[in-house]
Protein 1
Amino acid sequence: MAYDIGWIIPRLRSPGVLWNCASSITVAVVGLFSKIIVDFLNKTTVYNREALQRAVRRPRDVPLLTVSNHHSCFDDPGLWGVLDVGTLTRYSRMRWSLAAHDICFTNALHSAFFALGKCVPVVRGAGVYQTAMDFCVDRLCGGEWVHIFPEGRVNVDKQRIRFKWGVGRLVMDSAAAGRAPLVLPVWHEGMDRVLPNVEPYRLRFRNHLYLAVGEPLPLSPLLDKLRSANASEEETRRVITERIQEELMKLRDHTHALIRRTCPPAAERLLDPPAPAAGPSTPAPLHNGKERAPPDLTKDKEL
């Protein structure tokens, strides 16, 4: 029987003094631990670090939505280990992060830890209008920072997969409330060597990580165009999501070019997708040279 997560979001909405104290400590400890892992026990190269610093220090009434690829279970909190200590230990500046309920919230202890760490349990397959998404829209409308992995899962094979439309809903609804978020793309390579996706699942050291921060995406013209065209909510979510995916893929190509140009030849091994696992599965059929999405992916049922 699955663990009941029904208490978590109500608690996050009305935390209380003791919860806030415990959460502040958890966020700071996890942030500092991540910094030790990525900055001291591994080597990290950050491209355009200033864009991330500017984003986290934005004016209080400006919401921030960061989006990134998902290669390892350590991506969050590992990514944020590149931030300065002052940010990592400041509860109000740190992100809220959507996390899979069936991985991070499987029992009382894990649920308490991740919830105290500002993680929000999302039920994959429950659609874009579930409670976790409502909560994140509210956080954005309050000028806070939300991080999402639009791929919706750890992309072990590092293949291009369609982004879930939940990211489009976050932008659409926060903009409709008058607070269009600052959308910042982040691409990283090497995190799956720090915490591999195969057993034994333990942190490893002396690896080289690469993190590239893009510039904020100019989505206001796109939102205005969709409003003037009276686009439906479904169409709006789809178009916004596709635009974000397009920009993140551009950042991916730019990151790979930077790694090849500025780093040792051995670093190129990070850019090669792992060999496919043996099994009966077959690749998706091609249509005009492009991968055709399975029929169920065209429906707005998943995040």
Protein 2
Amino acid sequence: MAFSSSLALPSPSPPSGTFRARPAGRIRTGAAGRFQACSLPPPPPDVVVTRERGKNAKLIAELEKHNIQSLELPLIEHVDGPDTDRLPDALHNDKFDWIIITSPEAAAVFLKGWKAAGSPKVRVAVVGAGTARVFDEVSQLDHQSLEVAFSPSKAMGKILASELPRGSESTCKVLYPASAKASHEIQEGLSDRGFYVTRLNTYTTVPVEDVEPRTLKLAISAPVVAVASPSALKAWLKLISKVNNWDNSIACIGETTGSAAKKLGLKSVYYPTTPGLEGWVESILEALRVHRQLKEAPKC
């Protein structure tokens, strides 16, 4: 588990955020003698979860097993990239030795283009178990057309670039459908090893701009913010740019995002050595443990 230290969060409320917490309330007697329910303000969340709407359920469910209350505040959304429409033609008109897919979103976008191209036979290399799972149903139904054939020893793009197998051919052609904001680390690493890489920027991310003020206030009060990408991290920092002395913790899905957080000057940063949901949950729990220890420590 990697650690460094400093962060706090924004707060969501409908439609910008969803708060998963135990209901709080009390009963009072109305003027006519009937009992009426009176809602109390919800307790502050333990964790802000920030993936795109609809993609936080698994993390929230795992945290609930530890009695951790989450506030869902999507910080980014995915949109088409400049090369989205080029993907089906590239798959239909050319043959690649490998398709490189580095995230669940890249996998979902690729599958749309692959089906539009007529589901040609492809061999896929993936980064991370979460990315591989996106292909499970397709590869089971049509394993002869789409084969997930490689994943690196560690779920990082630079490791994939150093470990991807080469055939005996003089040229080994790779198609890399990526986020427009992804670094050039993979294509440069593969090119240095003699691969011929075609990169298509098939999607990109944009920050969520409209966050309801009460939701943001709740989020800022949470001791931990969970982020899954450098884009989400930057969106969070932009949201809290006018907040003074925010020094709560950031829990990152993996080393790439964790390193980005440190480069941006954040101090209380937690991330697993192996990216993935299980390690991410452990990083969140560790951040919360440290927060509680500091809170309970006697003041000198």
Protein 3
Amino acid sequence: MSLCDDTLLCNFPKCRAKLSGFAWVTACSHVFCDQHGSGEFSRSPAICPACSSALSGKLDIVRTELSPSEDYKAMVLAGLRPDIVMDISARALAFWSYQVHQERMYQEYSLSRAETQLKQMEKLLNQQNQSRELELSAMRGEIASLKKVMEEYKRKYSEVSERLMERNRQYQKLQGLYDSLRLRNMVVGVGERDALLQTGHHDFSTGVARQASPQRSPQFLSMGPDVDSRFFSCLEGDGAKTFFQFSSPAREKDRPFIKKH
């Protein structure tokens, strides 16, 4: 802000707005906008919001128009001696210079504060970058170790895969040998079974021809004087009674059986 600037800024800490219309000027060389001046200086005793000075005099606070009319300009200093006019003008210029200097000091303070915050932020950023670099280097080392482990697992996997393929080939060979042996055994077993069946059938036929069961298949090969004795001897046991019961159903139970010669 320079001496040639057309407007001043409100000295209220949270306002810093450009002044226009009416402003409140204090004896401690501070100026406030109409809104904050009306609010702050309505209380008694009045305290300057900028420097906390007590403003108890009648002319310690003045509400002035920043763009006076031409009539006001023509009459405000009319009738005053030149030295008084010069004194008033000097004091007004001193107030303006103080405002300019104050604004420059405020800007410098704001700049130094911003630089301090920037340095703190840069320091914090450097610390964070260092920590991130450490974490990144640690992660890179971990990635390298994991890559080594992965390569080792790949090597083991390839070895296991080769051994598995070799076992599969051996298994296929053994399976083929087993299938061929089983097929040969089946062929040999079928041949032996057929031979045994043929031998058993021949022996069975021969045995049947040689002997017969005395109870189920009685054989009457010859007829002679002792035919009755041989006939009854073949029917001894449990089948004799049954044979006579079913062979002579019309015979009465109390009729004696007469043996004929």
